[in-house]
Amino acid sequence: MATVEQSDGTLGAAPEEGVRRRDFINIAALSFAGVGGLITLYPLINQMNPSADVLALASIEVDISAIKPGQAIKTLFRKQPLFVRQLTPKEIGEADAVPLSELRDPQTLEQRTKPGHKNWLITMGVCTHLGCTPLGAGEGEPRGPYGGYFCPCHGSQYDTAARIRKGPAPKNLEVPDYSFKSATVVEVGKAAK
Amino acid sequence: MSFPWAKEYQPKHPFMRWLDQRLPLPRLAYGAVGGGYPVPRNLNYWWNFGVLAGLALTIQIVTGIVLAMHYVPTDAGAFDSVEHIMRDVNQGWLLRYVHANGASFFFIVTYIHIFRGLYFGSYKAPRELVWMLGLVILLLMMATAFMGYVLPWGQMSFWGAKVITGLFSAIPWVGESIQKWLLGGFAPDEATLNRFFSLHYLLPFVIAGVVILHIWALHIPGSSNPTGVEVKAAEDTVPFHPYYTAKDGWFAAFCLTLFALLVFFAPNALGHSDNYIQANPISTPAEIVPEWYFWPFYAILRSFTADFILPAKLWGVIAMFGAIALLFFLPWLDPSPVRSGRYRPTFRIFFWLLVADIVVLGYCGGSPAQEPYVMISQIAAMYYFAHFLIVLPILSWVEKTEPLPSSISEAVLRGKGKAADVPPAHIGGASPAAAE
């Protein structure tokens, strides 16, 4: 730093190829301190990431045996609402009938469900606009003109595959990582780390 | 402040000039810890410990703020949240061990800093206020460390809180009420934890404020030095930067290496295993001891065993607080005109006797309250007070001191037979002679 600039010939050995021993020591010491300082920042910053006990609750099991076609439940996954819905054949038909070119975030119902479980629509209940919880999963809640979910905050409308159809939301409702442990039990968030 | 030959801050870059006219912060830094602060050229390694104490305070504040993000000051949650930090929070074990051992590091360097002041007479005029502000910092540190030790809510935390607040119950008439007021109850409880957490977070910033006053007061006359002879001319000083920034930097790196050894290889060496048992109000540990840095004072507290006009308990409390209060009067208890112990042969003997005395007190304070430790602490406590109240005042009258050098540069260059343009000895001395 300033030493290099300020120190004159009286401070160090005779100049050799323009770099004095003192310059080298100076730069080496300051670099070492700088790297050490940066490494020190790592635990100070990383401590704010989710702790081990929070991550341990990052996957849940959901029993879906009581959900009848046309019904949905809300549960909590990582402190956020999770919608589990069994679609009726009519709803599946509606979802399949929509051409992908009409969609803002083009995805088919197959891509949003698991093979052999096309009737099980499992999504986060978090509107992709600003994070409100859309209506439609609870008994008697409005499902919007497309029969899926309706966000009361800014009027985003989702269809029966929970795809965004109208309103300010940019994306379809997020499908979390999940798998069927059996015909009636779903494990959500297995791939979480 | 500072000396007439101190270099003035002269920013070269147009932006720095622009800034200097509006917010002269770089000017302040340049004059306080930069090239514009001339420092005696003969400072030895004992003069590094002030900067180390500042570093320790910084470490404590940074790790403490981070730990407070995970700590829960409740009766039910405190102990568990500390275990949560140790096991679940990312690198939480490291942060907590650095904070816990950082307290010991802080006290070690501060005690060495104080002993340096005692030996080299740094408390004498014109630096009385520097000394007294330092003592205020020590008292604040003790309060902060004590309250911090209560927060993990282990057995030692609980019983330490009970015993130390119990000291106040020794005060006649109002003592019991004061203890209840401090605890917010009849025994340490959630109210105690909450207020201790609040104050434990607050006080380090108060310490930082007093540190600023301490440094400000120091920079008026400038640092003392091993000869105790005041700076007289430019050749007595070198600029703080790069000379002392480099030396402080190197020594800080050295001490942090030792600190890292403690944190990584013996993190619980200075702690007490009983504090890993959750606080239990109906079971006192077999032996309650405070942290090592309180041992000498704890020994003084316990050395009063018989009532004499006042109850023994009250005498102990008075003596313990008096042991520090006394130091506020040190600049006037030792009026010897010679500042440094280097030129006071008899003082030197008594100084080392005092060091040994305090080590003995510390050893007794960490031992069980039984013979022979009680009797040894009684004798050692008596010497502690005698040293300051009897030995120092008498010494300042009768001691035959050695001749002082006429200046710092004369003392530094004596016997070298060279002119004053020789680089100061410590500049080359700090780096290994090989590899040239």
Structure summary:
The complex is a heterodimer of chains A (193) and B (436). By secondary structure, chain A is α+β, with helices and mostly antiparallel strands.
Can you walk me through this structure?
The complex is a heterodimer of chains A (193) and B (436). Chain A has helices spanning 2-6, 21-46, 52-56, 89-97, 109-112, and strands at residues 60-63, 72-77, 80-86, 120-124, 147-150, 157-159, 164-166, 178-180, 185-188. With 193 residues, chain A is α+β, with helices and mostly antiparallel strands. In chain A, strand 6 (157-159) and strand 7 form a beta hairpin. Chain A is elongated. Chain B has 436 residues and is an all-alpha fold. Chain B has helices spanning 14-22, 25-33, 49-68, 78-87, 92-120, 128-150, 155-168, 175-183, 190-219, 240-265, 295-302, 312-325, 330-333, 345-365, 373-398, 408-413, 425-429; strands at 38-40, 237-239. Chain B is globular, with a radius of gyration of 24 Å. Chains A and B meet through helix 1, helix 2 and helix 3 of A and helix 3, helix 5 and helix 10 of B.
Labels describing this entry:
heterodimer, A: 193 residues, alpha+beta, 9 strands, 20% strand, B: mainly alpha, two-stranded antiparallel ribbon, 60% helix, globular, disordered C terminus
Total E-strand runs of chain B: 2
What is the oligomer described by this structure? Answer: heterodimer
Which range best describes the helical content of chain A: under 10%, 10-25%, 25-40%, 40-55%, 55-70% or over 70%?
Answer: 25-40%
Number of strands of chain A: 9
Largest sheet of chain A, described in full? 3 strands, antiparallel
Give the C-alpha Rg of chain A: 28 Å
Taking the sheet with the most strands of chain B, its summary is: 2 strands, antiparallel
Poorly predicted spans of chain B: 418-436
Distance, first to last CA of chain A: 43 Å
Q: Helix and strand succession of chain B?
A: HHEHHHHHHHEHHHHHHHH
